[in-house]
Amino acid sequence: MNTKIEGNAGENAAADYLENKGYRILERNYKCKAGEIDLIAYKDNTVVFAEVKARHLSGSGYAEEAVPFAKQRKICRTADFYRMKKGLTERLGFRFDVIAINHGVLKHYENAFPYCGTG
């Protein structure tokens, strides 16, 4: 399976999973000059910025290992742009999740990494 098709299938599965858990999907593949966030969702007064990673081949490691610090920082910067653009205040919580799909098995890591700032 090519990586683009695999990525789209993973994002669709992750969005379905979140919706089934009561989240409302606000954005899919949100892009700005800082980067891209796969899914932005909302539940319980919290905006969730989710990175989706899928792996079907055992030689490429676990999906959740594919979000290194540099990627986390890029996601945080992109989240800052999103929050500014939408006028989201500090009263609204936010967090960074990773949804990993390994060999078709989905695992949701809430608060997978802390806010990294823009430094």
Structure, explained:
With 119 residues, the chain is of the alpha+beta class. The chain has a single domain, classed as Trna Endonuclease, Chain: A, domain 1. The protein contains two helices and five strands, in the order H-E-E-E-H-E-E. It has a five-stranded mixed sheet with strand order 1-2-3-4-5. A hairpin with a 2-residue loop joins strand 4 (93-102) and strand 5 (105-109). The radius of gyration is 14 Å and the shape is globular. The model has no long low-confidence stretch (mean pLDDT 90).
From the structure above, extract its key features.
119 residues; 5 strands; 5-stranded mixed beta sheet; alpha+beta; single chain
The separation of the N and C termini measures 37 Å
> Could you give the count of β-strands?
5
State the shape: globular
* Count of distinct structural domains: 1
- CATH class, named Alpha Beta
Gyration radius from CA atoms, angstroms: 14 Å
CATH names the topology as: Trna Endonuclease, Chain: A, domain 1
Side-by-side strand order of the widest sheet: 1-2-3-4-5
Residue-averaged pLDDT: 90
In the predicted model, the low-confidence regions spanning at least 5 consecutive residues are none
Percent of residues in helices comes to: 25-40%
